[in-house]
Specification:
By secondary structure, the chain is α/β, with parallel strands linked by helices. It has nine helices and eleven strands. Helices cover 39% and strands 23% of the residues.
């Protein structure tokens, strides 16, 4: 029987982390839940720690989503990994089950969750760039076979997607109806949020320009 670990990277997500964890805990298929607080300076880690059966990794410094995710992956030996963002709004146990079942049944090697009917702006963003979605389930081997994945700060989703594309790995898009997320501008204010968004896109552009550093183990 495959073991499944849900990994939730979080940076200052005290307003939404509880509802995301609650949805995950409703899914009996999941064996382990790991929340990694990436240098949060709010109550993210404290709130996550209130939930029974949730392992909380609290980092003192913000090291970026990619490195935080990989650090959490190292904490588990599970065969199937579920990645969920901590700022989701409207995520349910059904959405999570829909992401997991194709992997469990060996119908796909990775699923990517795409927002639909959440909010227009986040729906459009995901339709244009579904490969940037932080909601996905995948076989552990995919992560293990990608060398130098930690070269990116926000581009881990792109790195994984690029790898599976080059390797002819089966990927299935899963529609997540009525799901959206809190935008950076809402979390940080218009100016700071926009600055962080530009920084995120710049990190992704830098990754694309260095894509030759991604090695594929045969």
């Amino acid at each position: 029987m495959c073991s499944i670990a849900a990994i939730i990277p979080a940076y200052n997500e005290e307003k939404t982390i509880g509802s995301v964890i609650s949805a995950v805990k409703e899914v009996d298929l999941i064996d382990y839940i790991i929340v990694i607080s990436d240098g949060s300076n709010d109550n993210t880690a404290l709130i996550a720690g209130l939930y029974e059966g949730v392992e909380v990794i609290e980092l003192s410094d913000n090291i970026g989503k990619s490195k935080a995710l990989l650090k959490a992956v190292e904490m588990t030996k599970s065969d199937i990994l579920l990645f969920l963002d901590a700022d989701l709004i409207g995520i349910t146990s059904k959405h999570i089950t829909d992401l997991l079942l194709p992997i469990i049944c060996d119908d796909s090697d990775m699923t990517i969750g795409v927002f639909n009917n959440g909010r227009v702006i986040t729906d459009i963003a995901q339709m244009v760039t579904p490969y940037l979605s932080g909601q996905r389930a995948l076989k552990r081997k995919i992560i293990e076979d990608i060398a130098h994945i930690d070269i990116t700060r926000f581009g881990i989703e792109m790195a994984i997607t690029q790898y599976v594309s080059k390797s002819n790995i089966d990927v299935l898009e899963v529609i997540l109806d009525n799901v959206t997320h809190v935008m950076k501008e809402e979390k940080m204010g218009i100016v700071k949020g926009f600055r962080e968004r530009i920084k995120m896109y710049w990190d992704i552009i830098k990754f694309v320009s260095r894509k030759n550093l991604i090695n594929i183990d045969k």
